[in-house]
Design goal:
It contains 2 helices and 2 strands; from the N terminus they run ββαα. Keywords: Cell membrane, Membrane, Transmembrane, Transmembrane helix.
Length: 69
Amino acid sequence: MIGEIDILGVFVPAVLVLMFIAYLVNLVLRNVFARIGVYRFIWHRSIFDLGIYVLVLGLVVIVSHRFIT
């Protein structure tokens, strides 16, 4: 995996782009969880959301690594 991505002449770290993609996926998941009522069963919503974000970020990194190599 390359360390930087060129976006309109600006080099940004690849991890930053992956984190942004994971954040967008996390926003969608949070809305879905709120609509179906998952948060009623969660003790601490913020910690749960952080855990989901870390899992999604890991999946995004794995998927991007498979597409690049």
